[in-house]
Amino acid sequence: MPPTPTAVAASYDAFPYPAWAFWFTHPNQLAVMATLFGMEPAPPERCRVLEVGCAVGGNLLPMAAAAPESQFVGIDISAVQIDLARQVAAEVGLGNVRLEAADLRELDPALGPFDYVIAHGVFSWVDDDVRAALLALCRERLAPHGVVYVSYNALPGWHTAGVVRDFMRLHAEPFEDPRTRIEQGIAIVEWLAERAGRVGDDWRARFLAAEVDNARSLPGTTVLHEYLSEDNRAFYFRDFLALAEAHGLAYLSDAKPWDMWIENFGPTIAETLGPVPGLVRQAQYLDFVTHRRFRQTLLTRDDTPLSRRIDTAVVERFVLRSLVAEAPDLVGLETGAPIRIGNPNRTPVEVAGVIPRLALHVLHRRGARDVPFDEVFAALVAELDARSLGAGRTDTDEALAATRKDLHRALLRLFFGELVGFSVSPPALARTVPERPRTGALQRWQARHGDAATNLWHEHLPLSPAARAVLAHLDGTLDHAALAALHPEPVEETLAALLRAGMILA
Ligand SMILES: C[S@@+](CC[C@H](N)C(=O)[O-])C[C@H]1O[C@@H](n2cnc3c(N)ncnc32)[C@H](O)[C@@H]1O
Questions:
Q1: Ligand 1: distance of its center to the CA of 54 in Å?
Q2: 490 CB burial (10 A radius; 0-12, 13-18, 19+)
């Protein structure tokens, strides 16, 4: 028997989900992906957003705080979580967000349409009936050129993870208390992993140990819902899309650019799978290669015209930011020899050619800053000339036009390698630390209540004790001397780190 809505609500009431912000669900990112594929999405600074299963508002409230002219609705079946979210919204003074404790099947019909609908961590973790209702809701309440974000557990990865889940559930059956269920569930898999490692060459040893590591790295509430709850259904990408299509929705793109670019996965994979016809079929092959277990898919209405061939000049509509931590190597730049650039949580990406390498260098030198395309182009041309690389690239109008096109292509490649970020409406961040620095009211609230905050690029960042002490007071009234009294660490260093982290407003 599937759990009743009351039982689902009670489980999340008892164990609220951790407040976390996900950059790849932000309207800015959804608008970038939609623009790349030929849509005209609503501007993130003036749009209507619905988040389904918003829990305590960790994702929705920072969005709302940063876009006062947009309207936000968050719905969750757990009244306890919605109450927590409402308290934060009230304390921070958010007037543009409505939070509803309701089953998604009963969302007030007067609400909508929405330009962006976000459902992170919901689709796989509810029963078939709620799942179908979620897709129906997404389609019915979506405005023309609207974008839906849905994440779900994926196959084939969950076939193997499912073994661990099934064993945990079996062993946790006799226990009522959720904490005991978590401890017992993990302990039995840990025991099996250890035993498999000791006894002969059991092929399961490494996979079980990795699964235990994963479970131990997650908050208890996530372990509960991922491994121990009644509902957790994984889907092949194609099957997910078939369900979405049956509800009048169409595949737009993946939410994270990296996931869609086959060359990110290495030359042998690109050569073998490159010829597979069709975007979806190719992606499905790739999921087998990577043994994928989680997916984040963007959908739109099936009456929205999409263009699968990206017009590379579209990058001129974006503002650009380097995501690379270390300065790219310039050795061998004149020949455009390939270099490999490390990327947090990703395998290194190969960047080859004079223009792509120099574009990354130019952007990296701007630091953690959003830079308009024209500024990047001007800096690139200046660098080419300064390095005597301008011949055939900058010396005639035709050469300049060709270089501009090369830059379009280079930036797209860097974007899909997640080495460069694109924005349609970047946050208004300071370029240098002001005399009386200021962050958002929500960030100050987060610093007062925990050891992590959401930066203005909507990334979830842990805070050092010094950053926390200072951030909590950045309301634009205190000067550096007053801020220095808040923590023994040198305040200029703390402020510089907060500036780089995208926490200080202009
Ligand atoms: C796994 S949590 C994800 C929370 C949050 N979106 C995140 O990813 O951090 C799933 C959320 O969906 C909510 N939920 C489950 N069934 C629901 C329903 N029928 N209607 C509305 N919300 C529901 C739960 O209360 C819970 O907060």
A1: 6
A2: exposed
CB of 104 within 6 A of ligand 1: the answer is yes
Domain boundary among 423, 453, 486: 423
pLDDT per position as a tens digit, 267-284: 899 999 989 999 999 999
The pLDDT score that the predictor gives to residue 346 is 82
221 Cα: distance to centroid of ligand 1 (angstroms): 12
Its pTM surpasses 0.85: yes
What's the mean pLDDT when you consider all of the chain?
A: 95
At 19 the three-state DSSP class reads coil
Q: Cα(113)–Cα(140) distance, rounded to whole angstroms?
A: 8
Please give the Cα distance from 316 to 374 (Å, whole number): 8
Give the ligand 1 atom nearest the CA of 130.
Answer: 19
Residues 146 and 162 in one domain: no
Domain that holds residue 493: 441-500
Task: Tell me, yes or no, whether 148 lies in a domain.
Answer: yes
Q: 162 and 149 in one domain?
A: no
Ligand 1 center to residue 425 CA distance, Å? 29
Burial tier of 357 (Cβ tally within 10 Å: 0-12, 13-18, 19+): buried
Phi, psi dihedral angles at 115 (to 5 degrees): -85, -30
- Domain stop point among 201, 228, 255: 228
220 & 249 share domain = no
45 & 95 share domain = yes
Side-chain half-sphere exposure of 65, counting CA atoms within 13 A:
29
| Count of domains forming the chain | 4
Q: What pLDDT, in 10s, does the model give residues 90-116?
A: 999 999 999 999 999 999 999 999 999
pLDDT for res 283: 96
Percent of the chain with pLDDT over 70: 99
Distance 475 CA to ligand 1 centre (A): 33
Flag whether pLDDT at 5 surpasses 80: no
Same domain, 46 and 113: yes
Domain identity same for 163 and 135? no
Indicate whether 86 belongs to any domain: yes
Residue 20 near ligand 1, beta carbon < 6 Å: yes
Nearest in space to 92 (alpha carbons), one of 443, 429, 428, 437: 443
- Bridge partners (DSSP) of residue 423 are 319
